[in-house]
Amino acid sequence: MNKKALATLSCIILSIIVFQSCSHINRETNISSHGDTESHNQGRNCMECHKNGGPGEGAFTVAGTVYQKNGNSTYPNATVKLYTGQDATGILKATIEVDGLGNFYTTEKIDFIEPLFPSVTGTETEHMPSALVVGQCNSCHGVTEDRIEVK
Fold it and tell me: In the list 59, 82, 125, 145, which could disulfide-bond 121, CB 3.0-4.6 Å?
């Protein structure tokens, strides 16, 4: 086999290896928006499925469910904002719309190197007093912490 054919074959084999090794990564864009009704499993940890290699569409960086103050019904069309400071201070790093079923999610890159403080707005705004360093909101809220609630 000549050098050119060998180089071509090597490139093809390398491309196949790279493609196979990256095929488990879920790169689909999936972002919630007001009025959307495509989400499901309110209150569950979205990132159990929506993760790299998971069966969900898109690997979420932030996801959760917002409930009305009564804690039983979801709160559709609210807005979640992530700030670098408590009580909506500092730099606004992300704005995520809550869909028509009460879920919010994004596959956009969110940098958690600096802790972020969420604020959730319905007709009023609620602030989370502690910082988060990961975006799996329903892994704590509704499990070891109260649900995310807003008026």
Answer: 125
